[in-house]
Structures are given as structure tokens and as C-alpha cells.
Amino acid sequence: MKEDAKTTRDIARELARKYSTMTHEELDTLESILEPMKFAKGQMILKEGGYCKHIFYIDRGLVRQFYFKKGKEVTEHLAVEGTIFMCIESLFKEEPTHLQVEALEPTLVYGLPKDRLEEVALHNVNIQILYRKILEESLILSQIHADLVRFETAQDRYKKMCKLSPQVVLRAPQNYIASYLQMTPETLSRVRANV
Fold first, then answer.
1. How many CB atoms lie within 10 A of CB 53?
2. pLDDT one-digit tens code per residue, 54-83
3. 48: left (phi over 0), alpha (psi -120 to 50) or beta
4. How far apart are CA 109 and CA 86, in angstroms?
5. Chain-centroid distance, C-alpha 93
6. In this predicted structure, what is the pLDDT of residue 194?
7. Alpha-carbon separation of residue 131 from 4, 29, 113, 176, 182 (angstroms)
8. How far is the C-alpha of 161 from the C-alpha of 141, rounded, in Å?
9. Phi, psi at 38, each rounded to 5°
10. Is residue 149 within a helix (H) or strand (E), and if so which, with residue range?
């Protein structure tokens, strides 16, 4: 099967493999709520002031979550295929988001609408587990990033990112990587020269 010929069923299976085992009925249910969405390079997936209503699973592409601070863009998260992203505060508080999400490459994501996911999770224990594991993973990734910028040297931050997200390091523009690692592009260039 060609990589670009995945079906919604394939995505449901991928999610089940990654987060929870499922019966055929549960896979049917999960598949029924998945919403495929395509974005061109440079297209906004979510704008500041919008509402995040989905947990997104990336099938293909590269995305960046960012916000503005004192007129400058700050990259908060970079993600590639096989990973999840969401604007968690907007999703759970049902408030407008301060974050923006942009496709850095042509990107195909599958949205799990929060309201439908919670509805089906009430009746499907393995979908409940999947939901919980996705949220746990999101919290852990946030903690890893927070610890990285709090405790690690610039060089160790970059080395750790190379280990944890090699595809992001290869594909994302350097200025976004520098911003994500909370260093200037010049510092990142020096660090890369020494690694």
C-alpha cells in the first residue's frame, strides 16, 4: 500500500496500536469520528482567537504551534507525522486560543472532535484508555520541553531534540527550532557546529 493511500480505517488502527488495543466495534466507532483535513504549506490550521475543538493526529507533514510575545513569534511546539497536537487550554476550557498552528509542509491531519470522543468514550473502555493516553503523552511532552529549557545548556537542549525529534530537526526551519529551544539563531548555529 502506498503511503498516501491510507484510509480512515488505517488511521484508526494506527491510533489503536499506539494508545490502546481495540475490538473491531471500537475501531469502527473510532473510525466514524475521525475527520481528515488537508492543509497547504503555510496554511493556518488554527488562528489566535479561534477555538480548538479537536485533538489532531498528523498523518503526513510538519506543523508548528506558536504565539506572539512583545511582537515576536515564539515557537512552542513542532510536530511531524505519527504525533498528536492540540491547543489544550482552548480545548478543555472552550475558550479562544492564544496559540496559532501553521502547516510548515503540505499536511494531512485527522481530527478527533473532543465532544464526539468524550461521547463514545463513555461506552467504550478502550477508547477511554486511548483518550487518557493521548492526554498523558501531551502532558509528558510539555514537561519534557519545560525541563529542557529550564535546566539544560543550549548544547544539551539541541542534542536532546536531535534524539527525541530527529525528523523535526531535519525538516523544520532553523529559526523555528532556535525559538522552540529558546535560543537565538546565532546560538543555534554555533551549537550545531559543535555537535
1. 17
2. 999 999 999 999 999 999 999 999 999 999
3. beta
4. 11
5. 19
6. 87
7. 26, 13, 11, 29, 30
8. 12
9. -105, 140
10. helix 125-151
